[in-house]
Specification:
The chain has about 700 residues and is of the alpha/beta class. It contains 29 helices and 17 strands. The chain has an 8-stranded mixed beta sheet, with helices on both faces. A 6-stranded mixed beta sheet has the order 1-2-3-4-6-9, with helices on both faces. It has a 3-stranded mixed beta sheet with strand order 5-7-8. The radius of gyration is 28 Å and the shape is globular. It binds nicotinamide-adenine-dinucleotide (NAD). The site of nicotinamide-adenine-dinucleotide (NAD) has 26 residues, from helix 13, helix 14, helix 16 and strand 15.
């Protein structure tokens, strides 16, 4: 691979500058410099009448190189875009594939923009906690109007070529078979045209916005719920506001100042970390770079319940056919009906069209016997969480499936080896643990049994990726890595009630922290009864098990959550708004009295720490036992399985903002007060002593 550079050549009086940093042509070191140099060269060459800026391969420029943020750059985008804009010869941006972030900003500084039908443009900087810093917030509003620009910048969404043309971002769509020739022809056509059209000079769309200064506050209000606590979306609005109220030069200064405030902010660092954690999580330690999982053409799912149906929908959404096998025709019909009902609700909400539903339903094929799935490349089992049923299904799968097929289980907790051992192919058995609702949640925890091969892990991960999921590998243990790391959080949230906290107080702390919903409100949605059964089983198996009396009593009173109209909160008919309920307060008081627990006031800080530090400690134990590869993998699990606020990086990244030493001190204190459930992890103690960072922790021996 050669270093990133901009290739310069001339053809028929047109200079063609080709950005070369495959595959995405990110604005890596050398690219901005190359653009500035190329423009100077073209100005100096009397034979050149116009210039084309194009990307090598199938992308224009997919954005800045994220590794460059927070580090000094020799040539900034401000300089290279200014160079494009001040060229005395017209410049045509020729866009194929992605023109995102800095890529689109460079295109906006060109005089013309042409694109293929598969081009996608956008300014997604808010997604990494910053705003466009190369004039994007000033040029886009001039080109398409402040309202449309603001919507694109604040959402960070990709705009497809068609829409981009309608909005006026793209001047012309061209045949994608030979973009370079089309661009050269286009450049020849406009070479003599003067004056050169400059986006910066366009003010007609700003005039209207000047009459409607309230549009910016309206935008702020409209994002308040989703963008709560986050700086970048609000800075983006302020930058567009500056485009309307200031001159172009002053607007650029305002953009630069807002950008500079964000570039090294904690939120931007957390979001960059999350971005890299999601890349790292795909790497399997010990596997060779040549490990290419065998192609998957046919998939079957066993069990069409809550999870099986949701998983089938994920396949259908990605255009992959899937077979569905159930225990009986009735169960199958019921499962398919649930899938149809879910789609119908989406159609009513307007999030999917009816013909798309038909297309997806046609991809889900009900089958009646194991003979019908024998030639599947992959099977995902999602039957009842019962050891005997799982064993029975895996015995049948082993008998029916062709050699080399991959057998995956969606079990939440049963040891993968239990299933693997009943087959003659334990190397082909792994967990593929999806999260409910499976058609929505992105996490797929791929669980490695003792004998699971790396090929099987790689195949499961690739398959998850193909259906839009993000997978993280866990070792087989009770709860695997994701749920196991979250279990102590749940325990603490219940036990803090006995000490004097209320569900609404705990929920508020976590919503203020950044979760979309508090943990009790979430529990009311998923149902209190699910964990009730698990707790009963645990209590029966372990005499030292610390019972959670409050939720147990609520379930026994019939308060199972929203489905019964009451759980941790009370609900009005047909309304999902949670209302605090004295009945819950009474149960809490009753339990506290019965067990002689002194009521006290818990501060918000204590609540946050109790919940998250309990999980940090467990995450360290998981890493010490090599049940997850890296701390950052656990962060990915929390981001995509549990709705942890992304702008806080993840559980372990957040923990570093407190520091391992302080965490250790705190946990040791609680260990003395509360006993064994707070036993500090030895890995945590080591990290605290060495002064290292929790986010860098990796499993040994893997
Ligand atoms: P469910 O009860 O909704 O569905 C189970 C389905 O399996 C039923 O439709 C049942 O008829 C079918 N089934 C039972 N025995 C079968 C057999 N021998 N052959 C074919 N089909 C059979 O349960 P669920 O919530 O979908 O859970 C399924 C699996 O997913 C469990 O292992 C569970 O632990 C796991 N899981 C559940 C969740 C969740 O939140 N519900 C989350 C992650 C994982």
């Amino acid at each position: 691979m050669t270093d990133p550079h901009v290739n310069y050549e001339t053809q028929d009086g047109i200079a063609v500058m080709t950005v070369s940093n495959p595959p995405l042509n990110a604005l890596g070191p050398g690219i901005r410099e190359g653009i500035v140099e190329g423009i100077a060269r073209a100005q100096a060459d009397p034979m050149v009448a116009a210039i084309v800026l194009i990307g090598e391969g199938r992308n224009f420029i997919a954005g800045a190189d994220i590794r460059q943020f927070g580090k000094p750059r020799t040539v900034t985008s401000a300089r290279s875009t200014a160079a494009l804009e001040s060229s005395a010869k017209p410049i045509v941006a020729a866009i194929d594939g992605y023109a995102l972030g800095g890529g689109l900003e460079h295109a906006l500084a060109c005089h013309y923009r042409i694109a293929t039908a598969r081009a996608k443009v956008g300014l997604p900087e808010v997604k990494i906690g910053i705003i466009p810093g190369g004039g994007g917030t000033q040029r886009l509003p001039r080109l398409i109007g402040p309202q449309a620009a603001m919507e694109i910048i604040v959402s960070g969404r990709h705009v497809l070529a068609d829409e981009a043309q309608k909005l006026g971002i793209i001047d012309q769509l061209v045949d994608e078979s030979d973009l370079r020739s089309a661009a050269i022809n286009f450049a020849k056509g406009i070479a003599a045209k003067r004056p050169l059209p400059l986006v910066r000079d366009r003010t007609e769309l700003l005039a209207d916005a000047k009459q409607r200064p309230d549009m910016f506050n309206a935008m702020r209000k409209s994002i308040d719920r989703k963008a709560r606590n986050q700086k970048a979306p609000y800075h983006a609005i302020a930058a567009v506001e500056a485009a309307v109220s200031e001159s172009f030069e002053d607007g650029l200064k305002a953009e630069r100042a807002l950008f500079a405030e964000l570039e090294n902010s904690d939120q931007a660092k957390a979001l960059r970390y999350a971005f890299f954690a999601e890349r790292e999580v795909t790497k399997i330690p010990g596997s060779s770079p040549d490990l290419r999982p065998a192609k998957v053409s046919s998939v079957a799912i066993i069990g069409a319940g809550t999870m099986g149906g949701g998983i089938a929908m994920s396949f259908a959404e990605h255009g992959m056919p899937v077979k569905l096998l159930e225990i009986s025709k009735e169960a199958l019909d019921k499962g398919l009906q649930r899938v149809r009902d879910t789609y119908a609700a989406s159609v009513r909400r307007g999030s999917i069209a009816q013909d798309e539903v038909e297309r997806r339903l046609a991809l889900i094929h009900p089958v009646r016997s194991y003979d019908d799935i024998g030639d599947s490349d992959v099977v995902i089992e999602a039957v009842f969480e019962r050891m005997d049923v799982k064993k029975d299904v895996f015995t049948k799968l082993d008998a029916a499936l062709k050699p080399g097929a991959t057998l995956l289980t969606n079990s939440s907790a049963i040891d993968i080896d239990v299933m693997a051992q009943v087959t003659k192919r334990p190397q082909d058995v792994a967990g593929a643990h999806f999260f409910a609702p499976a058609n929505v949640m992105k996490l797929c925890e791929v669980v490695r049994g003792t004998k699971t091969s790396l090929e099987t892990i790689a195949r499961a991960m690739k398959l998850a990726k193909d259906i839009g999921k993000i997978s993280a590998v866990a070792g087989s243990c009770d709860g695997f890595a994701a749920n196991r790391s979250r279990a102590p959080f749940i325990t603490e949230m219940m036990l803090m009630l006995e000490e004097g906290a209320l569900p609404e107080q705990i929920d508020k702390v976590m919503v203020d922290f950044g979760y979309p919903l508090g943990p009790f409100a979430v529990n009311d949605i998923s149902g209190l009864d699910i964990s009730y059964d698990t707790r009963k089983r645990r209590a029966a198996a372990d005499p030292n098990y610390r019972k959670l009396h409050v939720p147990d009593r609520l379930v026994e009173m019939g308060r199972k959550g929203q489905k019964t109209g009451a759980g941790w909160y009370r609900y009005e008919r047909g309304d999902r708004t949670p209302h605090p309920d004295d009945a819950v307060k009474n149960v809490i008081a009753e339990v506290a009295q019965e067990f002689n627990i002194q009521k006290r006031t818990l501060s918000d800080e204590e609540i946050l720490r109790r919940l998250l530090l309990a999980s940090v400690n467990e995450a360290c134990k998981i890493l010490a036992e090599a049940k997850a590869y890296r701390a950052s993998d656990i962060d990915v699990m929390w981001l995509h399985g549990f709705g942890f606020p992304r702008y806080r990086g993840g559980l372990m990244f957040w923990a570093d903002t407190i520091g391992a030493k302080e965490i250790c001190r705190q946990i040791e204190e609680w260990h003395k007060r509360y006993g064994r459930r707070w036993k500090p992890s030895s890995l945590l103690q080591e990290i605290a002593q060495s002064g290292g960072q929790l986010r860098d922790a990796k499993a040994k021996l893997l």
